[in-house]
Design brief:
alpha/beta, Aspartate Aminotransferase, domain 1, Aspartate Aminotransferase, domain 2, 7-stranded mixed beta sheet, 15 helices
Length: 431
Amino acid sequence: MPLTPEQVRADIPLTAKYIYLDNCATTPVPKPVVDAMLEYFYEYCANVERGAYSIASLANERWDLARAKVAKLLLRCDPDELIFTRNTTEGICAFAYALEHPLLDRSGGTFREHEPIIKWEKGDVIAFSELEHHSNIMPWIRLARHVGAKIRVIPFNRETGQIEPSAVEEAVDEHTKLLAIQHVSNVTGTIHPVEEFVRIAKEANPDCLVLIDGSQGPGHMEVDVRRIGCDAYAFSGHKGPLGPQGSGGLFVRREFLERMEPMEIGGGTIADVTTSDYKLRGDALCKRWEAGTPSIACLIGLGRAAEYVANEIGLKRIEEREKSLTEQFIEGLMDIPGVEVYGETEDMSIKAGIVSFNIRGWDSHDVALALDSEFKPPILMRAGHHCAIPACRALGVYERYGGTVRASFHYYNTPEEVEAALRAIRKLAST
């Protein structure tokens, strides 16, 4: 039987003390995930791919198994195409690095630079939306400056909070070499038609690469990178998957992974080293990108978390519950005078468990502080620009409110918590 919300709450002690509605930023880690990490520390705390003794072999086995679980359950990809990272940001930066630097490796007895993934030329374009968070903007601004490419910014619908396919069609053309775009907005909570975005980009230029920022995707919903058709997909383990901070992944299609220059090199990435050259490993391409000792416990925890959300709860059940809580919260907010809600408020089919709002006359940070300090149990929501200043400026809330107040849900949240939050907001709006 799937775990009930009450059973998941029992696995998360924090829920007994707080109404936690900041799952978009990070989630509490359930006991079974913590237990898997503790088991590593207590029972087989050895480095991976370094020792031949028994617990080192066990650590390596569990680490590889974690990658297989994450690849299968969260992304539907080959484990060898999944690079373990600390978070979405590291994954995006790693991909950007590879698009600037050709692969340097010994091949055929010669140490040389290989053909770059993209041969940048004058007039080339990098496209992203104004709804992206900073980690899917800044690396591309820097890459464009370094390679001489142009930036093209895709607008979003201010009413629905959605990046529309027509806007992508207008932005991408035969000169577009990269489209970097989000799966779900961390500001408006809108789910975007990323499969269609990929189709549009590839029709405009078959050589255009598409990276999807999946920060708010895996763990909240089913994700299939094959069906999406993207070339790369980055995500964090400490959001939807209920994994620990310091865990995440970057999927890259094998044909590009083979040609990518690692951002870091050293122990664990090589097959051979001399004092004048080196040969990168070819037995596990993904591990070329994991130099040095990885965050073993966190990544084993991520593998356990993938099982927890996908097998023990069920990703469809998570998505359905989050939509139900979101609909309840939006309907309540719309009835409170003086409250502004941003993004889609009617069509829940394109809405994730993220709702941004403001109370007129209040700074967003003051609302969040009041929800925490003036109510029992404390109600914990994020406030500010959510690392997405351009999006908040486009919505007209950055200068006016300092951003938005944001409630973000997960499976363990309850209708009673939503009602408690609405009562609190109604009280603040009336003062």
